[in-house]
Design goal:
Aldehyde Dehydrogenase, Chain A, domain 2; globular; six-stranded mixed beta sheet; seven-stranded mixed beta sheet
Length: 479
């Protein structure tokens, strides 16, 4: 921890908050304070914005190959420091070291992917239908960006936004979640080491998000907002962005259905459920929230899932053999406790888990509920914890209707051995992504995002850089 930056990163320099404020970073496994980091206020945010605005013109003119090579160097540094970054992430967020190492690799890949996309930004030339003008299309960076990242994937959500912004030629102000600022500060140090010019990336850690972000969005100099977080906060940020017509991309909440048909391979389905539910202790917007299992296989599926969930080892992420770390904080755990209690009061049976352990830290056991009422609160709430709630269904039309009966539409999971049904149901689900006989959809080479209240735009894939580019049309007379 001693080598991890704890100051703000503005204009290429490490600085204290203007008013000297700091905030604690807690270890969710123990509740103890790891360290204190600078707690930025509006003055610091303006200085970061000034630095980004000042650097924008020159950075936009930088050769694509230069931007590409900076990202490639940053990728290589991240890979070299996998263990260091994984331990840092586990300390501030809680996930087991094996998962943290996996996130480091995932995070690094966004930099490698967008290092390759940086040199593939193209335009076009065509004669317009009336023959009088040629149409010259070019693409240019949208301008200074505000990037707001969540606590659950503190390194990967940073690289998923920074990567395309750097590749496109945009400067940035990054505001990480207050629970997990250390990964973002470490990432800023890596990018500086990789040769990113001063002012291109600025990082403001803060517990005063509203005071810091709202003036930036309303001021007119920030031209792009990329946010990952809850739908409620996303809606507020959209309203604040409207005044200056700030371009937005929003990756918001989810309420993923996990559908198991009667012809599914139950071994595959249970394996997929373990990934879709237990990745990151269930603290993921892609986490399976509602398990719809055909009545004919529901009992067997529940038995197998409970057996697998009950075998997981809960404890501090740094301890050998631990599968499930703590939840992010006591408020997060209290929410899970309340949702499970509500489901049980409405008739749900607990197959495994369901009781908060004694002792320090924010731990909650992997839990499987069956006979869950459709009226339970966890049916229309993002659980964000290691709880699998099983409901039964009888036919395809019924389960599709119930799966779509939610304001969210990020991801859905479908398990069936029938190709026709697999394609038909996937096409009918109102989601941006579908995992077909798999519990993992996230990949830097694929477009990540949802529909309805799960967000706007896509991150990753070939289209990920589009969120940071504008088209310019130049009319050239034909002579």
């Amino acid at each position: 921890m001693t080598d991890t930056p704890t100051q703000l990163f503005i204009g290429g320099a490490w600085v204290d908050a203007a008013d000297g404020a700091t905030m604690p970073v807690d270890d969710p496994a123990t509740g103890e304070v790891l360290c204190h980091v600078a707690d930025a206020g509006p003055k610091d945010a303006k200085l970061a914005e000034d630095a980004a605005v000042q650097a924008q013109e020159e950075w936009a003119r930088t050769a694509p190959r230069v931007r590409s090579e900076i990202l490639r160097r940053a990728y290589e540094i991240i890979i070299e420091r996998t263990d260091e970054l994984a331990h840092l992430m586990t300390a501030e967020m809680g996930k087991p070291l094996a998962e943290a190492r996996g996130e480091v690799a995932y995070a690094a890949e966004f930099f490698r992917w967008f290092s390759e996309e940086a040199v593939r930004i193209d335009g076009g030339l065509a004669t317009l239908p009336d023959g009088r003008n040629r149409m010259l299309l070019s693409r240019r960076p949208v301008g200074p960006c505000l990037l707001i990242t969540p606590w659950n994937f503190p390194l990967a959500m940073g690289t998923r936004k920074i990567g395309p912004a750097v590749a496109a030629g945009c400067t940035m102000v990054l505001k990480p979640a207050p629970q997990t600022p250390l990964s973002s500060l470490a990432l800023a140090a890596i990018l500086k080491e990789a040769g990113l010019p001063d002012g291109v990336l600025n990082v403001v850690t803060t517990s005063r998000a509203g005071e810091v972000c709202e003036p930036l969005l309303r001021g007119g100099r920030i031209r792009k907002l990329s946010f990952t977080g809850s739908t409620a906060v996303g809606q507020l940020l959209l309203a604040q962005s409207a005044e200056a017509v700030v371009r937005t991309s929003m990756e918001l909440g989810g309420n993923a259905p996990f559908i198991v048909f009667e012809d599914a391979d139950l071994d595959k389905a249970v394996d997929g459920a373990m990934v879709a539910k237990m990745r990151n202790m269930g603290e993921a917007c892609t986490a399976a929230n509602r398990f719809f299992v055909h009545r004919s296989v529901a009992q067997e599926f529940g038995r197998r899932l409970a057996e697998r969930m009950g075998a997981l080892v809960v404890g501090p992420g740094t301890r050998d053999g631990v599968d499930v770390g703590p939840l992010i904080d006591r408020a997060g755990r209290a929410k899970v406790e309340e949702l499970v209690a509500d489901a049980v009061e409405r008739g749900a049976r607990v197959l495994v888990g369901g009781r908060t352990p004694e002792g320090p830290g924010c731990f909650y056991p992997p839990t499987v509920l069956t006979d869950v009422s459709a009226e339970s609160r966890l049916m229309d709430t993002e659980i964000f914890g290691p709880v699998a709630a099983i409901l039964t269904f009888d036919d395809e039309d019924e389960v599709v209707r119930r799966a779509n009966d939610t304001p969210w539409g990020l991801v859905g999971y479908v398990f069936t051995e029938g190709l026709d049904r697999a394609l038909r149901v996937s096409e009918r689900l109102e989601v941006g992504m579908v995992g077909l006989n798999t519990g993992l959809v996230s990949n830097p080479a694929a477009p990540f995002g949802g529909v309805k209240q799960s967000g706007l735009g896509r991150e990753g894939g070939r289209v990920g850089i589009d969120e940071f580019l504008e088209y310019q049309y130049l009319a050239v007379p034909v002579r």
